[in-house]
Amino acid sequence: MENKTFNIYFLCGQNRCRSQIAEALAKHYATENVRIDSAGLEPSSLHPFTIQAMQEIGIDITDRFSKKIDMKIFMSSSVIIKLCDDIEERCPIVPFGIRNEQWSIHDPLAKEDATMDDVRSARDEIKQKVISLLQKFGVYKSSQQSV
Fold first, then answer.
1. Core-most of 44, 56, 107, 136, by most CB within 10 Å?
2. Which of 92, 118, 88 is CA-nearest to residue 106?
3. 74-103 pLDDT, tens per residue?
4. Minimal CA–CA distance to 21: which of 80, 112, 98, 52?
5. What superfamily would CATH give domain 6-136?
6. Can you give the residue ranges of every domain in the chain?
7. Catalytic residues
8. C-alpha angle with apex 46: 70 to 27, nearest 5 degrees?
């Protein structure tokens, strides 16, 4: 991956939790030659639990906002990660030549009585998958201290 930018696009339904967590973790752990974005089918506000879960591990995402899928970013991606089953069914077709991965992470905010523990659990699952992804593509900062 030397000198060439590697583009990762994390997608989920609302871009308020899972894809935001994945984007923040990937930005934290990836080498400088990686461009990382996230988006949703139907963007809504970042959930306060999402912000708090990331602050607990030392990553500040208070300035982030929910975004709708941008086809220019989509088409220039090296890999597209779909974090939920809903996005798999409704997402634009990923063109040949772009890696397409489905993670199927349960939405920790789907139920009305969602808790911080639900979000922490999703965050921790996403963290392991992000680190594995970055390692697989050789763009993981190996000297990075674990959060």
1. 107
2. 118
3. 999 999 999 988 777 788 888 899 999 999
4. 52
5. Response regulator (3.40.50.2300)
6. 6-136
7. 12, 84, 91
8. 65
